[in-house]
Amino acid sequence: MTRTLDAKVAILGRQAVGKTSLVTRYVHHTFTDRTSSTIGASFVTAKVALDNWECRLQLWDSSGQERFRAMTQMYYRGANAVVLVYDITSEDSFKDVDTWLQELKRNIDLDDTVILLVGNKLDLSPESRQIDYSRARDYIKTISGDETALLEISCRDDDGVIDVFYELATRLVRKQESLADNQQNENGGLIGDGSGDRTSRRQDRSLFPIRLSSGGAGTETTTGLGNCCW
């Protein structure tokens, strides 16, 4: 029996680190050097198949521009997972990760959120690298206690991109399985397995909470496209 998990994923980071490239490379299998800056946020829905699970990820690609910072809060609130992206050739982009993290701490419960740190532009290493892998690994370990929550990728070369979303889905499923079926968590994250009365299964779709359901949809990995506030 295939089980379905729906989750909201916020993708955050400084402007030009490759957030949009990460999403478009995975969803549309394309890459361009002329990606326009995101205004506000855009989202796509991507499916990831894992054994007996089908994960539907709402990927919110938010603007990294400072003038849209306050608006960005609307898009990461209620997120079940956050991907913090930096450019391995930019010290400033890595420092900005900590700025994002401090903001997240003020607005969401990080203990209840899957966090991944992703270093992009691996194709420019080692000549232009400024952020050593060991430094980034030690940083994420101090934040989450898990040094494996770091991935280095190249959106240009399509190197490691699929691993980001597979890792996201794996961690979300692992988190879901650790919760008892039909037990509502504090943030409304767990909806249940489709049993129980209709009222108890209601959810605020604006938050895209993790939803656990039963089904037999197979393991199709198609994607859908939508956008908001371009």
From TrEMBL:
Segment forming the signal sequence: none
UniProt keyword Chloroplast present: no
Record key words, sorted: Nucleotide-binding
The keyword rRNA-binding appears for this protein: no
CDD domains on file: Rab
Domain of life of the native organism: Eukaryota
Protein name, UniProt field: Ras-domain-containing protein
Pfam name, any one: Ras
